[in-house]
Amino acid sequence: MYRNDQAETAIKASILAIVGFLICITTIACGFNGINQYRSIADRYDVTGTVSSEISGKSFIQDGQSYSKFSVPLEDISSDRGSEFGGSKRILNCTSTQCASLDIGQRVTLSCYEQWHAFIPNEEECRFARLK
To answer: How far apart, in whole angstroms, are the C-alpha atoms of residue 99 and residue 54?
Structure first.
C-alpha cells in the first residue's frame, strides 16, 4: 500500500510539472513576437498628434541585425480607433528612421499597433505615416 501512494504522488507531480512547463512555453512564445507579427498587420490604427518635446532614440541588435527605436512624445492626440486611444499626451515607440528628424511643434500621423507583452505593460509600436 505504501508503494501505491508513492507512485500516485509521483504521477501527480509529473503531470503538474508537464502542465506548468506547457504554460511557461506558451507564455514565452506569445511574448516574443508570436502574436505581434499578426497584430502588426491586422490591427494597425492611425494616431495623429503634435510633437511636444525632443525625440529620444536607442539602437539595439536582435538576431544579428541592428535596429533603432525612437520615443515620440505627442500631445493633442486623435486616433481613428476612438476616444479611448486619444488624449492629451502620450509617448509612442517609432521604428521608422523618419521619426528621428521630427521637430517640436510638427503635426504627424503614425501607424500603430498595440504590442502585447507577458508580465509587463503593453506598448504602442508605430511607424511613420505622414506629416499633417
So the answer is: 11
